[in-house]
Amino acid sequence: MKKLQVKVLDERMKNNLPQYATAGSAGLDLRACLDEAITIEPGQTVLVPTGLAIYLDDPGYAALILPRSGLGHKHGIVLGNLVGLIDSDYQGQLMVSTWNRGQTAFKLEPMERLAQLVIVPVAQVEWAEVEEFTASERGAGGFGSTGRA
Ligand SMILES: O=c1ccn([C@H]2C[C@H](O)[C@@H](COP(=O)(O)OP(=O)(O)OP(=O)(O)O)O2)c(=O)[nH]1
Ligand SMILES: [Mg+2]
C-alpha cells in the first residue's frame, strides 16, 4: 500500500489515525477536532479542523473529502463545497466545510467522524489544440442523446 505522509496537529489524533474500516473500504473517516460540541443551525456552514495535515507529494494523486452517507442522508450534514479537493502539494491542515442543509439543528461532538478522505489517481494534462476532432461514435451528443430506457 502507498505510504502517505501525515502530520498529527492535534494530540487526540496521535495513535488514532484514520483507518480503512474494512478491507474493501475506499474512505478514511475524518474526525471533528473540536474542543467542545458545536451546534450547526439549518443552513449554516462551519469550517471544522481535522487535526491532520497530509502531503501527497505527487501530482499523480489527489485526495477528496466526501460526506459520510449516513450523516448526509439522515441528518443533512454534507459539505459546503460539495466535495473537498486536496492538491498534492497542500501541506496545511485538512479542513471540512460542514454544511447543515437540513431543517433541524445538528450537534457535532468533539472527535465525531464527520467526513471521509479518498485518495485518487490524477492525470495532469497539457493542451494539444486542434481545429477538428477525429469523429467518435457519440460526437457532441449528450444529455440523454442515447435515449431514456
Ligand atoms: O474541503 C477542503 C478543500 C480544500 N482544502 C485545502 C486543500 C486544497 O489543496 C486547498 C485549496 O483548495 P481549492 O483549490 O479547492 O480552493 P481554492 O478556493 O481554489 O483555493 P486556492 O486559491 O488556495 O487554490 O485547500 C481543504 O482543506 N478542505
Ligand atoms: Mg484552487
Describe the fold and architecture:
This protein has 149 residues and is mainly beta. The strands form three sheets. The chain has a four-stranded antiparallel sheet with strand order 1-4-8-6. It has one domain: Deoxyuridine 5'-Triphosphate Nucleotidohydrolase, Chain A. It is built from one helix and ten strands. It binds deoxyuridine-5'-triphosphate (DUT) and magnesium ion. Deoxyuridine-5'-triphosphate (DUT) binds at residues 65, 81, 84-87, 90, 94-95, 97. This enzyme is involved in nucleotide metabolism: it produces dUMP, the immediate precursor of thymidine nucleotides and it decreases the intracellular concentration of dUTP so that uracil cannot be incorporated into DNA. Its EC number is 3.6.1.23. Keywords: Hydrolase, Magnesium, Metal-binding, Nucleotide metabolism. Pfam families: dUTPase.
Jot down its keywords:
binds magnesium ion; 4-stranded antiparallel beta sheet; 149 residues; Deoxyuridine 5'-Triphosphate Nucleotidohydrolase, Chain A; dUTP diphosphatase activity; binds deoxyuridine-5'-triphosphate; nucleotide metabolism; globular; 10 strands; mainly beta; magnesium; 1 helix
